[in-house]
Amino acid sequence: MEAKLLQSLHLTTWTGSDSMFPIPNNSMGLCTRFDKKRRVNMLKCNLERSIKPVIGHRAAGLKVSCTSQNPPASVLESGTVTTEEDLVLKKKSEEIEPCLSGRCIYLVGMMGSGKTTIGQILSEVLGYSFFDSDKLIEQSVGGTAVADIFKLRGEAFFRHNETEVLHKLSSMRRLVVSTGGGAVVRPINWKYMHKGISVFIDVPLDALAQRLTAVGTASRPLLHHESGDAYTQTLKRLSKLWEDRSEAYGNAHVRVSLERIAAKLGLGDVCCINPTQIAIEALIQIEDYLKK
């Protein structure tokens, strides 16, 4: 059944990308723990091809997180080194996966909030497939970058095709989907995402501005390049986007607040939180939602 659905995923007008970008090791969103020797298969697509997902297989042991915040490591029977946080993540995923009953997980949040990295981690531990909706759109038009799509065709064209992507994906099961930051603005998109479980990754705007400024905003079409201090201008633009989208983010079934995670862990700065900790909190919040 899933194979047939994948074969039907032909997108003839797609156009986006909200993939993760390189940031310093101590920043909250980047972790290479799943990059090396990852058991995935993404086939390049064009207008005539079907789009195949990145497949996340459950590993016998999880790989070491790349931050210094993790407790001392232990070794699983498989010989793979893993941290205590990884073990917690694995245990929690095994508890929750049967309760999901195959429902998809949709990650929403502002640009740069780490949706792709968190989505990859969740898909691996749950044994789900992973999709980045912006990447699917990019690949379908021969690799055209989101910024270029916005420039050449406009935001309305992109949003229309974003909706079609979510429509197609919503007919599938056992997926983790990383959506673009603005996917929440169209009510029709919520109709599709609410077929699964939507998870809002809530990151303070100042932390997002620091991250985006550090890596540059050239690939972010909605962050206009203006004169003046880069951080100040980025924060200003993010604040305007937040005003337009904050109410829409409230439609998510689950909210994962980095400020709440920092408080629980006794951390003074959300930038000290690593992706594993965010993924654990996401599973905890999903579990709470499922119990309602």
From TrEMBL:
Q: Which GO terms describe its cellular component?
A: chloroplast; cytosol
**Matches recorded under Pfam families:** SKI (PF01202)
Q: Does the keyword Transcription regulation apply?
A: no
Alphabetic keyword roster? Amino-acid biosynthesis, Aromatic amino acid biosynthesis, ATP-binding, Kinase, Nucleotide-binding, Transferase
Q: Which domain of life is it from?
A: Eukaryota
Q: Which pathway is recorded for this entry?
A: Metabolic intermediate biosynthesis; chorismate biosynthesis; chorismate from D-erythrose 4-phosphate and phosphoenolpyruvate: step 5/7
Q: Which cellular compartments is it found in?
A: Plastid, Chloroplast
Name the reaction it catalyses. shikimate + ATP = 3-phosphoshikimate + ADP + H(+)
Q: Which GO terms describe its biological process?
A: amino acid biosynthetic process; aromatic amino acid family biosynthetic process
Q: What is its EC number?
A: 2.7.1.71
Family in the record:
Belongs to the shikimate kinase family.
Q: What is this protein called?
A: shikimate kinase
